[in-house]
Amino acid sequence: MTRYLLAVVLSVLVCYGLIEAWPLVAGPSLSIVSPVNNASYPDGIVDVRGKAIRVAQLTLDGAPVLREEDGSFSSTFTFPRGGSILTFRAIDRFGRTVTATRTIFVP
To answer: What InterPro entries does its record include (predicted)?
Structure first.
């Protein structure tokens, strides 16, 4: 009986440790809601929105992007005629990087 109780307590502690360590193991997460890849923006105004979780630094084409406490970000940009490639880069505190690109076109 004591061995089973000890095994259950040990299992619970291991599971709890794994749950708490998950953000350290998972690395950064980056989700881009807007712009949609290969989208056309006739007026050249693009709303950039998304969410970055477990991130120490977020950049768009090398420029820092400000985030809310929950990781969400939103900004509006005006682009010239032609094609543009937007490169989002999220870096966590351990240096792990996630990159996302979006191609847009302004006719």
So the answer is: Ig-like_fold
* CB-based contact 48:60 (threshold 8 Å): yes
The verdict on residue 5 lying in a domain is: no
Closest CA to 32 of 85, 68, 74: 74
How far is it, in rounded angstroms, from Cα 43 to Cα 77? 11
Q: Which helix (H) or strand (E) holds 16?
A: helix 2-26
The pTM of the full predicted model, rounded to 2 decimals, is 0.76
Assess contact for 107 and 81: CB atoms under 8 A: yes
* Confidence (pLDDT) at 22: 66
**What confidence score (pLDDT) does residue 34 get?**
92
Residues of the chain with pLDDT under 50: none
The residue segments making up the domain with residue 61 are 27-106
